[in-house]
Specification:
Chain lengths: 317, 209
């Protein structure tokens, strides 16, 4: 039989979980962090989109390597792509061009309620058109674009806001939609960092400290040649290897502690691109840096419930 | 600057609906991470994910494992590239290397991923031969040919200790990960695989000293 004390403790725990959930997902958030994520994420999406330009016809053209027949046998039965509908070179170019324009609109914040949704759809479409070409940066940017579509990412630093100001519209209020988008960015930042750390730790090279060597000694991927340094100092190579994994774990876990979130988000903006540089996946590093921006605590941002200001996101005007 | 006045609170019904949607998505995210691991997944996770979550998480490109291992020091973690040569013209120029020297950044990385997928997918019975045939077929029209050889070369970095002791070049070496001849006869694409050299018995025994 349950005692009143146990019942009280259980209901208190339930109430506490409920309050935490409500505070995390439903506290209205200001538009700044998501607007910064929109600009940086949009630029990143554009860069990844542009990387298809030179080989568009070779890969996806009517006589291209990645034919619809191949995709039929390769992809998940649930996968769909708007590019499947383009059966001619002209149609392919038009679809690709329109997709690029939509991503430009996302980046500058033009008609954001529509273009962010279209941008996310277009980006997913090109990834589904050639799944064997997709890298880890594409996965992260796809998530970022969907989060931008969920939140009110055009409420600040955007053409929409500029036009709204000219028309005398009042400044946008903190929004629950934006808070949900930022919450999803934080969840994904933690999941992506944690999943990467787990995947890496399945390999011996991340335990014996030589992974950094195997990354640096590849022929083409690395952007900086660290083989000379790693040959000179085994300890430095070990340090770089272990630092990558430790950072990923600390980032994934620490984001959930209020005190650690701000320094981790700030560290992530610098550290993730460095990890990407060492790993030969610069866009992956940059994409995670953009996710880190989305993890900036909303109560330190002007326009949210506390109204406190910060150095990174100073108030306008 | 945004107004400081708080927005109207969400109704309980809307908040409950959003809570259910978010909880559903988070469960789907967890299952996708567990179900798309390179280590494989349990039958339970695979089935629940594929029946309940993949149908709506795959189209927006969210059915992902995010298991970016970067490297495990294995041969398949090295950089891969294509070497394609036309076979119907003895005077044909040098084979085409993809990614070529003029390609860089993410464009080159996409070619390397395609080459790697070509080599790795040969171990998958359901995908064996699909990509090599498609790649070969993809050059038939632009090259005005119907017979090419396709090789996937991968770069093997040296072991650090060997490089330090001078037993291996720091630049590493290349290894053939896959090779096949792709030709079209009467419109039908044929893939003629080649057996790795080390799997063939020597025809002539080396003289013993």
């Amino acid at each position: 039989m349950k005692t009143p004390a146990r019942v009280s403790a259980a209901s208190s725990l339930t109430a506490s979980i409920g309050a935490t959930w409500t505070r995390f997902w439903f506290t209205p958030a200001g538009p700044w962090p998501l607007a910064v994520v929109r600009i940086l994420g949009g630029l990143l999406a554009l860069a990844l989109w542009a990387s298809y330009a030179g080989d568009l016809e070779t890969w996806f053209g009517p006589f291209g390597m990645i034919s619809p027949a191949l995709l039929g046998a390769w992809r998940s039965p649930y996968a769909v792509s708007l590019f499947d509908l383009t059966t001619s070179s002209a149609g392919l170019l038009v679809a690709y061009g329109l997709g690029g324009l939509v991503l430009v609109a996302v980046t500058i914040g033009l008609a954001t309620p529509v273009t962010t949704v279209l941008g996310a759809i277009a980006f997913a479409a090109i990834l589904h058109r050639g799944p064997m070409l997709v890298g880890p940066a594409d996965d992260v940017v796809a998530v970022i674009l969907w989060c931008l579509a969920i939140g009110r990412s055009g409420d600040s630093l955007s053409v929409d806001r500029l036009v709204g100001g000219w028309r005398g519209r009042s400044a946008p209020r903190p929004s629950v939609r934006t808070r949900i988008a930022l919450g999803l960015l934080q969840v994904h930042a933690a999941v992506i960092a944690g999943a990467a750390a787990i995947a890496q730790l399945k390999g011996d090279v991340w335990w014996n400290g030589t992974a950094a060597w195997w990354l640096a000694a590849r022929a083409e991927s690395p952007l900086v040649d660290l083989t000379g340094v790693f040959l000179q100092s085994e300890y430095f190579m070990n340090l770089v290897t272990h630092a990558i994994v430790v950072f990923e774990i600390v980032f994934a876990v620490g984001l959930w502690f209020r005190a650690a979130r701000r320094p981790l988000a700030l560290t992530g903006v610098v550290a993730w691109p460095l990890v990407g540089l060492v790993a030969g996946e610069p866009f992956w590093g940059l994409a995670l840096a953009v996710l880190s921006v989305g993890c900036w605590p909303p109560d330190a941002v002007p326009g949210t419930e506390s109204g406190a200001t910060s150095v990174l996101f100073p108030p306008i005007g | 600057m945004p107004e400081k006045t708080p927005p109207p609170p969400l109704s309980d019904a809307l908040r409950a609906g959003l809570t259910v949607a978010l909880a559903l998505y988070l469960v789907g995210l967890a299952l996708c991470v567990a179900g798309n691991s390179a280590s494989g997944s349990s039958a339970l996770v695979r089935t629940v994910k594929s029946k309940l979550f993949s149908p709506w998480m795959t189209p927006p490109w969210l059915d992902l494992g995010y298991d970016t291992r970067l490297t495990h020091g294995l041969a398949e973690d090295g950089d891969h590239r294509f070497e394609i040569r036309r076979l119907d013209d003895p005077a044909a120029p040098e084979p085409v290397i993809l990614p070529g020297p003029a390609m860089y950044g993410e464009r080159a990385a996409r070619w390397r991923r395609l080459a790697r997928a070509t080599a790795v997918s040969e171990r998958d019975p359901e995908r064996e031969g699909l990509l090599p045939a498609a790649i070969g077929q993809g050059v038939f029209v632009p090259w005005h040919t119907d017979d090419v050889s396709l090789r996937v070369l991968r770069h093997l970095p040296p072991d650090r200790r060997d490089a330090l002791d001078g037993l291996a070049d720091v630049a590493g070496r290349d290894e053939q990960a896959y090779a096949a001849r792709v030709r079209s006869i009467d419109g039908e694409v044929q893939l003629i695989g080649s057996t790795p050299r080390e799997e063939l018995a020597p025809l002539v025994k080396e003289p013993t000293r």
